[in-house]
Amino acid sequence: MSYDEVVESLRAIYDTRAPQRDATVKQPWKISERAAFLDRLRAIQARTLLEIGAGTGQDSLYFARAGLTVTAVDISPEQVAICRRKGLIAEVRDVLHLGFTPASFDAVWSMNCLLHVPDANLAEALRATRETLTPGGLAFLGMWGGVDSEGIMENDGRFFSFRTDEQILTAAAQHFEIVDFHTIDHGFRFQALTLARPAHSSHLRN
């Protein structure tokens, strides 16, 4: 599937599932990941945050309540509408078409978004994410993975691109400095990357 086909398919699915997803209680380990990233943001005195793949805004609301100026983007108009009802700044956009002025945000939070980006478009997605950050800004990219597999998941309908640890680390290192990488095993491997946009990026790929 092309990137555009993936986006259109996912948009329809997430629009349908928006109320159900908003009612889902966040797992404790995800809450811990979120809190740890907030600690890092306070250490660098971050003020602005972009959430890519915001869903119904549970994480965006958390960061906003912590004092950050948050912008939430998602491919699903229904999920964006829920974000707005929560008082969040939210827009319908995808990771390859963010449309923000470069270096607009001190931080990016993206939970289980890049796993919907085909391998052929991963470098472009990472580059687009980096370009939204100020020099020295931090990004958290979390996704399920640990295997090399791409396609539509049976009995689910969504497109997934899972990567091995080596694959995602190699890809991320082309565009960011890797601050932290760890995995969490919940029956399936979760990959958590904290990345920084270097103050000088001449050694990274454009």
UniProtKB/TrEMBL annotation:
The keyword Heme belongs to this UniProt entry's keyword annotation: no
UniProt cross-references to Gene3D superfamilies, sorted A to Z: Vaccinia Virus protein VP39
Alphabetically ordered keywords of this record: Methyltransferase, S-adenosyl-L-methionine, Transferase
Top-level taxonomic group: Bacteria
Pfam families, alphabetized: Methyltransf_25 (PF13649)
CDD domains referenced in this protein's UniProt entry, alphabetically: AdoMet_MTases (cd02440)
GO terms of biological process kind: methylation
GO molecular function: methyltransferase activity
Protein name: Methyltransferase type 11
Matching InterPro entries: Methyltransf_25 (IPR041698), SAM-dependent_MTases_sf (IPR029063)
Domain spans labelled Methyltransferase: 50-137
The organism of origin for this protein: Couchioplanes caeruleus subsp. caeruleus
